[in-house]
Amino acid sequence: MSEAGEFIDAALQREGAWYRAEEMRLRHAESPGTGGAAAAHSGNRLQYYGSSVGAVRGTVRDALRRHPGLTHDEVTALSSELWDVPVFERRLAAVVLLQSRVAVLRNTDLTRIEGFVRTARMRDLVDPLAVDVVGPLIEGLDQQSRARADAVLDRWVREPDMWLRRAAVLAPLQAFRRGNGDWERFTAQARIVLAEPAGLEPDRTGPDGGAAREAVALVLEAVAKSRPELRLPPGVAGLESSAWD
Fold first, then answer.
1. What 3 state SS string does 9-58 have?
2. What is the average pLDDT across 91-119?
Protein backbone atom coordinates (compact mmCIF):
# COMPACT_ATOMS: atom_id res chain seq x y z
CA MET A 1 0.00 0.00 0.00
CA SER A 2 1.22 3.51 -0.79
CA GLU A 3 2.16 5.94 1.96
CA ALA A 4 -0.89 8.09 1.22
CA GLY A 5 -3.13 5.02 1.16
CA GLU A 6 -1.80 3.81 4.49
CA PHE A 7 -2.34 7.24 6.02
CA ILE A 8 -5.95 7.42 4.82
CA ASP A 9 -6.84 3.89 5.89
CA ALA A 10 -5.28 4.27 9.36
CA ALA A 11 -7.01 7.61 9.92
CA LEU A 12 -10.40 6.25 8.84
CA GLN A 13 -10.05 3.33 11.22
CA ARG A 14 -9.14 5.65 14.10
CA GLU A 15 -12.19 7.80 13.35
CA GLY A 16 -14.50 4.75 13.24
CA ALA A 17 -17.15 3.83 15.76
CA TRP A 18 -18.93 0.51 15.99
CA TYR A 19 -22.39 2.09 16.42
CA ARG A 20 -22.00 4.20 13.28
CA ALA A 21 -20.76 1.15 11.39
CA GLU A 22 -23.87 -0.77 12.41
CA GLU A 23 -26.18 2.12 11.55
CA MET A 24 -24.62 2.45 8.10
CA ARG A 25 -24.76 -1.28 7.49
CA LEU A 26 -28.46 -1.38 8.35
CA ARG A 27 -29.28 1.74 6.33
CA HIS A 28 -27.59 0.43 3.20
CA ALA A 29 -29.06 -3.03 3.62
CA GLU A 30 -32.55 -1.52 3.74
CA SER A 31 -32.07 0.62 0.63
CA PRO A 32 -33.52 -1.00 -2.52
CA GLY A 33 -30.86 -2.29 -4.88
CA THR A 34 -27.97 -1.42 -2.58
CA GLY A 35 -25.78 -2.61 0.23
CA GLY A 36 -26.72 -5.96 1.68
CA ALA A 37 -28.61 -7.99 -0.90
CA ALA A 38 -26.97 -6.49 -3.96
CA ALA A 39 -23.50 -6.67 -2.48
CA ALA A 40 -23.99 -10.25 -1.39
CA HIS A 41 -25.26 -11.14 -4.87
CA SER A 42 -22.06 -9.75 -6.39
CA GLY A 43 -19.88 -11.54 -3.83
CA ASN A 44 -18.54 -8.20 -2.65
CA ARG A 45 -20.23 -7.43 0.68
CA LEU A 46 -19.15 -4.07 2.04
CA GLN A 47 -17.57 -3.61 5.43
CA TYR A 48 -17.75 -0.42 7.49
CA TYR A 49 -15.31 1.35 9.77
CA GLY A 50 -18.01 3.65 11.13
CA SER A 51 -16.26 6.90 10.17
CA SER A 52 -18.43 9.98 9.56
CA VAL A 53 -18.60 11.66 6.16
CA GLY A 54 -16.88 14.66 7.71
CA ALA A 55 -14.04 12.46 8.92
CA VAL A 56 -13.63 10.96 5.45
CA ARG A 57 -13.45 14.38 3.84
CA GLY A 58 -11.05 15.67 6.49
CA THR A 59 -8.82 12.64 6.11
CA VAL A 60 -8.54 13.07 2.34
CA ARG A 61 -7.86 16.77 2.80
CA ASP A 62 -5.07 15.99 5.28
CA ALA A 63 -3.61 13.37 2.95
CA LEU A 64 -3.49 15.86 0.08
CA ARG A 65 -1.74 18.38 2.33
CA ARG A 66 0.86 15.75 3.16
CA HIS A 67 1.24 14.87 -0.53
CA PRO A 68 0.56 18.13 -2.40
CA GLY A 69 2.34 17.17 -5.61
CA LEU A 70 0.37 14.07 -6.58
CA THR A 71 0.37 13.64 -10.35
CA HIS A 72 -2.57 12.47 -12.43
CA ASP A 73 -1.28 8.89 -12.39
CA GLU A 74 -0.71 8.99 -8.63
CA VAL A 75 -4.19 10.35 -7.96
CA THR A 76 -5.91 7.72 -10.09
CA ALA A 77 -3.74 4.92 -8.71
CA LEU A 78 -4.53 6.01 -5.15
CA SER A 79 -8.25 6.08 -5.93
CA SER A 80 -8.06 2.49 -7.20
CA GLU A 81 -5.99 1.44 -4.19
CA LEU A 82 -8.66 2.80 -1.85
CA TRP A 83 -11.53 1.37 -3.87
CA ASP A 84 -10.13 -2.13 -4.24
CA VAL A 85 -10.77 -2.99 -0.56
CA PRO A 86 -14.57 -3.30 -0.09
CA VAL A 87 -14.88 -0.90 2.85
CA PHE A 88 -17.46 1.85 2.45
CA GLU A 89 -15.32 4.62 3.95
CA ARG A 90 -12.34 3.73 1.77
CA ARG A 91 -14.51 3.88 -1.34
CA LEU A 92 -16.04 7.16 -0.24
CA ALA A 93 -12.51 8.47 0.31
CA ALA A 94 -11.69 7.47 -3.28
CA VAL A 95 -14.68 9.50 -4.47
CA VAL A 96 -13.66 12.51 -2.37
CA LEU A 97 -10.12 12.25 -3.73
CA LEU A 98 -11.38 12.35 -7.32
CA GLN A 99 -13.71 15.24 -6.45
CA SER A 100 -10.77 17.14 -5.00
CA ARG A 101 -8.54 16.55 -8.02
CA VAL A 102 -11.13 16.46 -10.80
CA ALA A 103 -9.18 19.15 -12.68
CA VAL A 104 -6.37 16.67 -13.44
CA LEU A 105 -8.68 13.92 -14.74
CA ARG A 106 -8.99 12.99 -18.40
CA ASN A 107 -11.67 11.45 -20.57
CA THR A 108 -9.75 8.15 -20.47
CA ASP A 109 -10.33 8.02 -16.71
CA LEU A 110 -13.98 7.25 -17.39
CA THR A 111 -12.94 3.60 -17.83
CA ARG A 112 -11.71 3.49 -14.24
CA ILE A 113 -14.77 5.36 -12.98
CA GLU A 114 -17.03 2.95 -14.85
CA GLY A 115 -15.49 0.12 -12.87
CA PHE A 116 -16.18 2.02 -9.66
CA VAL A 117 -19.82 2.59 -10.59
CA ARG A 118 -20.34 -1.05 -11.54
CA THR A 119 -19.11 -2.22 -8.12
CA ALA A 120 -20.55 0.64 -6.02
CA ARG A 121 -24.21 -0.39 -6.37
CA MET A 122 -25.50 2.26 -3.98
CA ARG A 123 -26.62 5.86 -4.24
CA ASP A 124 -24.18 7.09 -1.58
CA LEU A 125 -21.27 6.24 -3.89
CA VAL A 126 -22.72 6.38 -7.40
CA ASP A 127 -24.33 9.80 -7.04
CA PRO A 128 -21.23 11.76 -5.96
CA LEU A 129 -19.18 9.94 -8.59
CA ALA A 130 -21.66 11.01 -11.26
CA VAL A 131 -22.50 14.53 -10.08
CA ASP A 132 -19.20 15.67 -8.57
CA VAL A 133 -16.66 13.74 -10.65
CA VAL A 134 -18.01 12.66 -14.05
CA GLY A 135 -20.00 15.83 -14.72
CA PRO A 136 -17.23 18.34 -13.88
CA LEU A 137 -14.65 16.12 -15.61
CA ILE A 138 -16.60 16.26 -18.87
CA GLU A 139 -17.26 19.99 -18.59
CA GLY A 140 -13.52 20.64 -18.32
CA LEU A 141 -12.57 18.76 -21.49
CA ASP A 142 -11.74 20.24 -24.86
CA GLN A 143 -14.18 19.69 -27.71
CA GLN A 144 -12.57 16.53 -29.09
CA SER A 145 -12.12 14.86 -25.70
CA ARG A 146 -15.63 15.84 -24.68
CA ALA A 147 -17.09 14.19 -27.76
CA ARG A 148 -15.35 10.97 -26.77
CA ALA A 149 -16.55 11.27 -23.17
CA ASP A 150 -20.12 11.94 -24.30
CA ALA A 151 -19.95 8.78 -26.40
CA VAL A 152 -19.00 6.83 -23.27
CA LEU A 153 -22.02 8.19 -21.38
CA ASP A 154 -24.26 7.43 -24.35
CA ARG A 155 -23.10 3.83 -24.00
CA TRP A 156 -23.64 3.85 -20.24
CA VAL A 157 -27.27 4.87 -20.59
CA ARG A 158 -27.87 1.81 -22.80
CA GLU A 159 -26.11 -0.62 -20.46
CA PRO A 160 -28.14 -3.27 -18.59
CA ASP A 161 -26.54 -2.06 -15.32
CA MET A 162 -29.00 0.41 -13.76
CA TRP A 163 -26.22 2.17 -11.82
CA LEU A 164 -24.33 3.04 -15.00
CA ARG A 165 -27.56 4.41 -16.45
CA ARG A 166 -28.16 6.41 -13.27
CA ALA A 167 -24.62 7.81 -13.42
CA ALA A 168 -25.02 8.84 -17.08
CA VAL A 169 -28.27 10.66 -16.36
CA LEU A 170 -26.99 12.41 -13.21
CA ALA A 171 -23.66 13.53 -14.68
CA PRO A 172 -24.95 16.92 -15.98
CA LEU A 173 -26.86 17.75 -12.77
CA GLN A 174 -24.41 20.46 -11.64
CA ALA A 175 -24.55 22.09 -15.06
CA PHE A 176 -28.36 22.09 -15.09
CA ARG A 177 -28.44 23.60 -11.60
CA ARG A 178 -26.35 26.49 -12.94
CA GLY A 179 -28.75 26.96 -15.83
CA ASN A 180 -26.54 25.19 -18.37
CA GLY A 181 -26.42 21.57 -19.51
CA ASP A 182 -27.16 19.80 -22.77
CA TRP A 183 -30.95 19.48 -22.77
CA GLU A 184 -31.10 17.62 -26.09
CA ARG A 185 -28.69 14.95 -24.87
CA PHE A 186 -30.55 14.59 -21.58
CA THR A 187 -33.87 14.23 -23.41
CA ALA A 188 -32.43 11.39 -25.50
CA GLN A 189 -31.18 9.69 -22.33
CA ALA A 190 -34.55 10.13 -20.62
CA ARG A 191 -36.29 8.46 -23.56
CA ILE A 192 -34.07 5.39 -23.19
CA VAL A 193 -34.46 5.12 -19.42
CA LEU A 194 -38.21 5.74 -19.33
CA ALA A 195 -38.88 3.27 -22.13
CA GLU A 196 -38.02 0.44 -19.71
CA PRO A 197 -40.70 -1.23 -17.59
CA ALA A 198 -40.92 0.43 -14.18
CA GLY A 199 -40.18 -1.64 -11.09
CA LEU A 200 -37.76 -4.09 -12.67
CA GLU A 201 -34.03 -4.06 -11.99
CA PRO A 202 -32.34 -4.01 -15.41
CA ASP A 203 -29.50 -6.28 -14.31
CA ARG A 204 -32.13 -8.93 -13.55
CA THR A 205 -31.19 -9.45 -9.90
CA GLY A 206 -34.66 -8.70 -8.61
CA PRO A 207 -37.02 -5.87 -7.65
CA ASP A 208 -35.65 -2.35 -7.87
CA GLY A 209 -36.57 1.09 -6.61
CA GLY A 210 -36.08 2.55 -10.07
CA ALA A 211 -32.62 4.05 -9.58
CA ALA A 212 -32.19 5.18 -13.19
CA ARG A 213 -35.76 6.51 -13.47
CA GLU A 214 -35.30 8.32 -10.17
CA ALA A 215 -32.22 10.02 -11.63
CA VAL A 216 -34.33 11.38 -14.49
CA ALA A 217 -36.74 12.87 -11.94
CA LEU A 218 -33.89 14.48 -9.99
CA VAL A 219 -32.55 16.20 -13.10
CA LEU A 220 -36.04 17.32 -14.12
CA GLU A 221 -36.49 18.86 -10.68
CA ALA A 222 -33.28 20.86 -11.11
CA VAL A 223 -34.27 21.94 -14.62
CA ALA A 224 -37.70 23.08 -13.43
CA LYS A 225 -35.96 25.53 -11.09
CA SER A 226 -33.13 26.76 -13.30
CA ARG A 227 -34.64 26.58 -16.82
CA PRO A 228 -38.42 26.32 -16.39
CA GLU A 229 -39.00 26.97 -20.09
CA LEU A 230 -37.64 23.51 -20.95
CA ARG A 231 -40.10 20.64 -21.35
CA LEU A 232 -39.69 17.04 -22.30
CA PRO A 233 -41.37 16.34 -25.66
CA PRO A 234 -44.84 14.76 -25.68
CA GLY A 235 -43.50 11.36 -26.72
CA VAL A 236 -41.55 10.94 -23.49
CA ALA A 237 -43.61 9.64 -20.60
CA GLY A 238 -43.20 7.73 -17.36
CA LEU A 239 -42.72 10.19 -14.49
CA GLU A 240 -44.73 12.99 -12.92
CA SER A 241 -42.77 16.26 -13.11
CA SER A 242 -43.29 19.98 -13.53
CA ALA A 243 -40.86 19.68 -16.47
CA TRP A 244 -43.22 17.26 -18.21
CA ASP A 245 -45.63 18.10 -21.02
1. HHHHHHCCCHHHHHHHHHHHHHCCCCHHHHHHHCCCCCECCCCCHHHHHH
2. 97
Cβ 123 vs Cβ 32: under 8 Å: no
Q: Is the pLDDT of residue 243 over 50?
A: no
- CB–CB of 89/56 below 8 Å? yes
List of domains in the chain: 1-104 (1.25.10.90), 106-245 (1.25.10.90)
The answer to whether the CB of 9 falls within 8 A of the CB of 96 is no
For 53, other C-beta atoms within 10 Å of its C-beta total 11
Pairwise CA distance, residues 219 & 170, whole Å: 7
List Cα–Cα distances, 120 to 33, 87, 208, in angstroms: 11, 11, 15
- Gap between the Cα atoms of 125 and 139, Å rounded: 21
* Torsion angles phi and psi, residue 121, rounded to 5: 55, 35
- Against a cut of 0.85, is the pTM above it? yes
Residues 6 or more apart in contact with residue 199 via CB below 8 angstroms:
207, 208, 210
How far, in Å, CA of 159 to CA of 167, rounded? 11
CB 48 within 8 A of CB 87: yes
pLDDT in tens, 78-97: 999 999 999 999 999 999 99
